[in-house]
Amino acid sequence: MSRGNAPVERDREPRTSMSARVRTIAIAVVVGVVYGTVATVGHRHAWQIGDVSIPWGLVAGLVGVAALLIGIRMVAGGRAAAIGASVGVVAAVALLSLPGPGGSVLVASGIVGTIWSVAPALIAVLVVAWPSLPSRGAAVARPRATHA
Questions:
Q1: Do 83 and 23 contact (CB within 8 A), yes or no?
Q2: How is 75-132 classified by DSSP, letter by letter?
Q3: Which among 45, 81, 103, 131 could disulfide-bond with 57, CB atoms 3.0 to 4.6 Å apart, if both were Cys?
Q4: What angle do CA 84, 77, 15 make, to 5 degrees?
């Protein structure tokens, strides 16, 4: 069925209340802290194949940080929740990079520790600063030409 030249109605997202936004950001911060903690503990895992060490924990942690932040940005529909999750991840990594009361460390010095200390923050900056893509519903439907 053709609508002819009738205006096309767009699906509009209902405005969310301030309390819903605050709750979303708070949940994103908690999720970021939890993921940052778990990934910091696991970033040192590596496969040893002969003389070659493959740091799969580091790779999995960084891919997970990117996936978490991109997913939160897409699901929450904006940068605010992604910023909250970024703050949680970076805060957890920074806190767990400090020496513990007995002098033990989770993030040891070396290339893997240095990459883990810096890369989550760089990923967070990229995800948050990435420009928004036009949504699917924003495209205006053009009427089809009919030939008689």
A1: no
A2: HHTSHHHHHHHHHHHHHHHHHHHS--TTS--SS-SSHHHHHHHHHHHHHHHHHHHSPP
A3: 45
A4: 105
Query: What DSSP element (H or E) covers 40?
Result: helix 18-42
The token pair that represents 56 in the structure block: 């799969």
Cα distances (Å, whole numbers) of residue 40 to 12, 36, 53, 107, 124: 40, 6, 18, 7, 16
- Amino acid identity, residue 29? V
Instruction: Kindly report, residue by residue over 11-49, the tens digit of the pLDDT.
Output: 444 567 888 899 999 999 999 999 999 999 998 889 999
Structure-token pair, residue 83: 């910023």
Kindly compute the dihedral angle of the four CA atoms of residues 12, 66, 60, 62, in this order, to the nearest 10 degrees. -170
What pTM value is reported for the model?
Answer: 0.75
